[in-house]
Amino acid sequence: xxxxxxxxxxxxxxxxxxxxxxxxxxxxxxxxxxxxxxxxxxxxxxxxxxxxxxxxxxxxxxxxxxxxxxxxxxxxxxxxxxxxxxxxxxxxxxxxxxxxxxxxxxxxxxxxxxxxxxxxxxxxxxxxxxxxxxxxxxxxxxxxxxxxxxxxxxxxxxxxxxxxxxxxxxxxxxxxxxxxxxxxxxxxxxxxxxxxxxxxxxxxxxxxxxxxx
Length: 213
Description:
By secondary structure, the protein is of the alpha+beta class. The protein has helices at residues 6-14, 19-31, 97-119, 135-143, 145-153, 156-167, 172-187, and strands at 35-39, 42-47, 50-57, 62-66, 90-94. It has two domains: 6-119, Aspartate Aminotransferase, domain 1 (Alpha-Beta Complex); 126-213, no CATH class. It has seven helices and five strands, in the order ααβββββααααα. It has a five-stranded antiparallel β-sheet with strand order 1-2-3-4-5, with helices on one face.
């Protein structure tokens, strides 16, 4: 099959679950002519460098994730919203190859619509009342249920502070590194400016006391 990336071969071969399902989804996606890469630890499929769709293996299911899925017509209500604050991303869960085969015609239609939207430059319009979720963060939340739950549990102020921090990076690689660096803080329920060493005199804020220990 054309455009198969060796890193994705290795990723699927080492997956503890859903190998057959990921291979079935991969076949459908590559037939549409998208370029295969490995991004955020997941198979990612792009059109002229723009992310269109990802495949992810989770504990309960294998997930087909549309980056701008909110734009797609979905009369059968197949697309699900990953989290309360997700604006653009949508996914379809699968637990068997049989399910994928049954829905293959509809998956091909959704995939083609997603590609046509990308070609036309149609993007999801994010709410202006709050900081948008960067694509890299949505991808990390989609593939990590624990991180998704912890981020949603943060206070609105802490979430906004993280979003400002992530969105402040111009390069995708920098946004990815910032998200990874903040992962442990988010899982601990801490904001980017909260004390995590326990020595601050201005709790919960960090006052730099950690530098003396």
